[in-house]
Specification:
The complex is a heterodimer. Chain A is α+β, with helices and mostly antiparallel strands. Chain A contains eleven helices and seven strands. In chain A, strands 2-1-5-3-4 form a five-stranded mixed beta sheet. In chain A, a hairpin with a 2-residue loop joins strand 3 and strand 4. In chain A, helix 10 crosses helix 11. The longest helix of chain A is centred in the last third of the chain and has 18 residues. The radius of gyration of chain A is 21 Å and the shape is elongated. The relative contact order of chain A is 0.12. In chain B, the strands form four sheets. In chain B, strands 1, 2, 6, 7, 8, 9 and 16 form a seven-stranded mixed beta sheet that branches. In chain B, helix 1 runs parallel beside helix 11, helix 5 crosses helix 15 and helix 13 packs antiparallel against helix 14. Chain B is globular. Classes of the chains: A alpha+beta, B alpha+beta. The interface between A and B is large, with 62 and 66 residues.
């Protein structure tokens, strides 16, 4: 695979262009290259006015989210030899477009502000002691790098105007709810204010997560179950809470 | 004025939203003052996110003998006796509380069997000292602080590129910025300003640093008359990826060695037994980096010009549990399963010990209402930084910078900013829009190649002089760089603005490296291979009245007699 890559990049400036277009570029192939290498080649060698967003180029910061051949992906983690030499790159469709591949993801901050932070139970002795095993559950959710690909792929977020917070934010809430010292239960809030009921667990979010977080099974379904328990069976909640307390040393 | 410029007024302006910037903003908020934080990247994406190994803090959870005095001694020795001793003392004493505070904010550290915060071994730390979250400690730190920022009354503007500080008289009245997503100009007016913009690692071709680490804070501070210190001190991390080319330089965490990984050359020899029989792979970063460099340049390197890092003697479960991010990184980028295969690694530019000269207790620069913290500041790490001390640094001194800026702001008022100062900035930005301007990325490519080739891990006068010539040439060519299109989200424009700052860092790094005629810590001169007691000094860089870069040396302030017992006496050959 030594010949050039044909890459089509979405170009649109909502303030100046009448309509969007896909622009074709030819980029020389380099061994082991990722899509971000190709897009940066365009930016640095062909047209520096193209708007792209990237930062760490190591899959750790979650800045370079885009749709590659229609699939929500991180450009820095998508190897060209895995997807072939005809590549189409477009911006995340779930967020308002700024220009070209850059979108406005700021609504996520508004949602994040609604989810209560860690609220430790009262009377804990400091410094805190936590059983090593109890760290594990929350840890999975804390791998989230906020690339918002799960939000992009979610058809509820993307196509329907609902109050649904979206997968990233359920993961955030779950990371606190499953923190071994946390004293709150965010599931009711996620259901009432966060529209969690709109999620019909199609698991698309789990499929696109570059951190391999089992978003649907381990976060959303867990929170949904808790919300149902809380609504219909307060006794179950008491037992659950007690169980949670016993885990803490 | 024809341009629409938005004005934002605040008590304290924080430039940069990595760990240091966010921790500073939290301090200002704690003090009950108004704070505005601006950042070039998106919120939560700063280079802090790349930190892997952990936060060094003498909690003594795993090794109870550890305490601040041991940490202090390690810092001074690793900094090869040119660190600011007061900063080392402050870090040693305050890092544990900053870690516990982070835990109260919601960070969830790995635990000891009895439930306390786990601490791991790291190069040249006397005891196991690094509080960590697997190998994703930076991510945990930045997300935890981001949550605090979002849930407090802290105003932030992300993707806001600050072009310059606005200096009125001998004070900083604020800063001028471009909101990248809209192309609007902003003037921030503040009583006190904190710079927390990180380092200049991207002035090198092979680097572990993010896109944003172009030394913007160094550039803007220098132009405002701020003094810089020890700019020649660049840390090369011993282990960066070498293959495939797209990820060359990407960090391979020291935790791999902390968890038992060994280094081998192409003959299969564990060469660290030769270079450092006692500490082996866990000796200081400069020692291991030079050993790797030597093996490679002497022909015992791997196919892609690296050495081998091997952790396959540990069980796959252990590796995946302790080094999950490294496991994924090699699998996804290089197609290498590190539980079964050896990694190929080589030294990569990692950290800048030098930067803005600050007072140890207050983080104040030589301008009375300008403060700096984190990698952009200097003093703590001297000639070399210990792993895990950067995350401790940003928390400890980020907080202090925020506290000091708050105290200053409380007893001062906003300064008027003359219109012509703002016009000057607008013209500076607009001046880059021209037909047939030189592509800034071509110049950046030549600059970074020059730095890696001539101002690298091993230096000599001849190469440094060559680098100075190239930098001077590029400074001339810089006058012709330009871009087209609009201001909004234009990387061509950003490239021009960043290049101006990168040139400042490169000029300072190279001149200081030429001046320091000795080998100390991260700075190795082939033509001056020994440490020289006459060079127990810091080099200060500043802009002279003629607009040219000036340098002077100042002796290192001696530590108090009673602290000498914590440090091995300095030995000269």
């Amino acid at each position: 695979m030594s010949e050039d890559i044909n890459i089509k990049i979405f170009r649109f400036d909502p303030e100046n262009d009448k309509e969007p277009k896909f622009q074709d570029y030819k980029v020389p192939y380099v061994d082991g290259m990722v899509v971000l290498d190709a897009v940066r080649y365009v930016e640095e060698k062909i047209d520096p006015t193209i708007s792209i967003r990237w930062n760490c180029k190591a899959g750790k910061c979650g800045s370079c989210s885009a749709e590659i051949n229609g699939h929500p992906s991180l450009m820095c983690k998508t190897r060209v030899d895995n997807i072939g030499k005809n590549i189409t790159v477009s911006p995340m469709a779930a967020f308002p477009l700024v220009k070209d591949l850059v979108t406005d993801i700021s609504k996520n901050w508004e949602i994040a502000r609604k989810i209560p932070l860690l609220t430790p139970r009262e009377g804990l002795e400091k410094p805190w002691r936590i059983n090593p095993k109890d760290v594990e559950r929350s840890k999975e959710f804390k791998r989230c790098i906020e690339c918002f690909l799960c939000m992009d792929v979610c058809h509820v977020v993307r196509e329907h105007f609902t109050p649904y917070f979206g997968p990233r934010h359920i993961v955030k809430a779950a990371s606190w709810d499953m923190h071994p010292l946390d004293g709150l239960d965010r599931s009711k809030m996620l259901n009432d204010e966060g529209g969690m009921g709109y999620c019909n667990i199609t698991k698309c979010c789990t499929e696109v997560c570059p951190e391999h977080i089992k978003i649907t099974d381990n976060a959303i379904i867990q929170e949904k179950e808790r919300a149902v328990d809380r609504k219909y069976d307060p006794i179950a909640m008491v037992i659950k809470n007690r169980r949670k307390k016993e885990k803490v040393m | 004025m024809s341009e629409n410029v938005k004005t934002v007024e605040t008590d304290v302006l924080v430039i940069g939203a990595g760990g240091a910037g966010m921790r500073a903003a939290i301090s200002v908020n704690d003090a009950g003052l108004k704070v505005v934080m601006v950042t070039k990247s998106l919120l939560g994406k700063a280079h802090t996110v790349m930190a892997e190994g952990g936060i060094a803090a003498a909690l003594g959870n795993v090794d109870p003998q550890d305490n601040w005095t041991v940490h202090y001694g390690d810092i001074i020795e690793e900094g090869v006796y040119i660190s600011d001793w007061k900063m080392a003392e402050i870090l040693g004493k305050e890092a544990p509380e900053r870690v516990l505070e982070l835990e109260r904010y919601g960070a969830l550290f790995d635990r000891t069997p009895d439930g306390r915060i786990m601490q791991r071994a790291f190069g040249a730390h006397t005891y196991r000292r690094l509080a960590h979250v697997g190998d994703r400690t930076g991510l945990e730190l930045i997300k935890t602080l981001e949550d605090q920022v979002l849930h407090r009354d802290i105003t932030f503007y992300d993707e806001m590129y600050i072009t310059n500080l606005l200096k009125v008289g001998d004070k900083i009245a604020g800063a001028f910025g471009i909101k990248m997503t809209t192309g609007e100009f902003f003037v921030f007016k503040a009583k006190a300003t904190v710079i927390a913009t990180g380092g200049s690692g991207r002035v090198y071709k092979v680097t572990s640093n993010s896109w944003e680490s172009t030394g913007d804070g160094i550039g803007m501070a220098y132009r405002a008359g701020v003094k810089l210190r020890d700019m020649e001190m660049i840390q090369f991390h011993p282990t960066g990826m070498v293959y495939p080319p797209g990820v060359k330089g990407l960090l391979v965490t020291e935790s791999v060695r902390g968890e038992g990984g060994i280094l081998l050359n192409s003959k299969g020899e564990r060469y660290m037994l030769k270079y450092s029989p006692q500490k082996k792979e866990l000796d200081a970063r400069d020692v291991v980096a030079r050993a790797n460099y030597k093996e490679i340049t002497e022909g015992r390197g791997t196919e892609h010009g690296g050495v081998y890092l091997d952790i396959t003697h540990k069980s796959p479960e252990y590796i995946k549990h302790k080094l999950p991010a490294m496991y994924q990184q090699f699998l996804e980028f290089a197609g290498v399963d590190i539980t079964k295969e050896k990694m190929e690694v080589a030294p990569t530019v990692h950290y800048m010990m030098g930067g803005i000269q600050v007072e140890a207790e207050t983080e104040r620069s030589n301008i009375e209402n300008l403060f700096a913290a984190g990698e952009v500041a200097s003093g703590l790490h001297g000639a070399n930084r210990l792993g895990g001390n950067s995350l401790a640094d940003i928390l400890v001194f980020g907080k202090r910078a925020g506290d000091s800026a708050s105290a200053y702001a409380r007893s001062s008022t906003l300064l008027d900013i003359p219109q012509d100062l703002i016009e000057k900035e607008i013209n500076y930005v607009k001046g880059f829009f021209k037909e047939n301007g030189k592509n800034p990325y071509d110049l950046i490519d030549r600059l970074t190649t020059c730095m890696s080739d001539n101002v690298g891990i091993v230096r000599d006068g001849e190469h440094l002089k060559k680098a100075i010539d190239i930098i001077e040439q590029l400074k001339e060519e810089f006058k012709e760089v330009g871009t087209k299109g609009m201001i909004r989200y234009n990387h061509g424009l950003l490239g021009c603005l960043e290049l101006a700052n990168m040139l400042v860092s490169c000029e300072a790094i190279t001149h200081c490296a030429l001046m320091r005629e000795e080998s100390r810590g991260a700075h190795t001169r082939l033509d001056f291979p020994k440490k020289d007691k006459n060079w127990k000094k810091n080099i200060i860089t500043y802009m002279g009245e003629d607009g040219k870069m000036k340098y002077e040396t100042v002796p290192v302030e001696p530590m108090p007699k009673e602290y000498e017992q914590y440090v091995k006496p300095e030995v000269y050959e």
